[in-house]
Design goal:
With 126 residues, the protein is of the alpha+beta class. It has helices at residues 23-32, 39-44, 52-62; strands at residues 16-22, 34-35, 47-48, 69-75, 83-87, 93-97, 101-102, 106-114, 120-121. The protein is 21% helix and 33% strand.
């Protein structure tokens, strides 16, 4: 199936995008020097990211009740043309990376603590 990989002119351009990653998987990426993606990313052929506005809902939909996660902030401009904003959930445009994530593009990583209600305590996202 062919997908259009062009970014729509009205798609939201973000300076920082976010990836929710299990700590263990991120430690492996750190040791290897590159992040190739989680299982869903490898299956879909690109690394799924969220904007700051999308990250909380992504956590609720795909990681509810999951402990041991990190929120990784990435400099979008460092990813070049391999980063594309494509429609996904409800027609919202999500950042997708059609390459491995170079760790040099990572701005910071912070734990996503699990609250008693099963939701995550997000750090300030700037």
């Amino acid at each position: 199936m062919h997908r259009s990989h062009r970014r729509r002119k009205d798609a939201p351009l973000q300076r920082i995008i976010y990836k929710i990653v299990p700590q263990e998987l991120w430690q492996e990426a750190r040791a290897e020097g590159i992040f190739r993606g989680a299982a869903i990313d490898l299956q879909d052929g690109y690394i799924h990211f969220s904007t700051a506005e999308q990250a909380v809902e992504t956590a609720q939909r795909h990681f509810a009740g999951v402990a041991g996660l990190l929120l990784v902030a990435v400099e979008a401009a460092a990813l070049g043309d391999a980063l594309r904003y494509e429609p996904s959930r409800g027609g919202d445009f999500f950042p997708h990376l059609y390459a491995d994530l170079p760790l040099g593009a990572v701005l910071w990583e912070k734990p996503l603590a699990l609250k008693p209600d099963g939701t995550h305590d997000f750090p300030e996202m700037v």
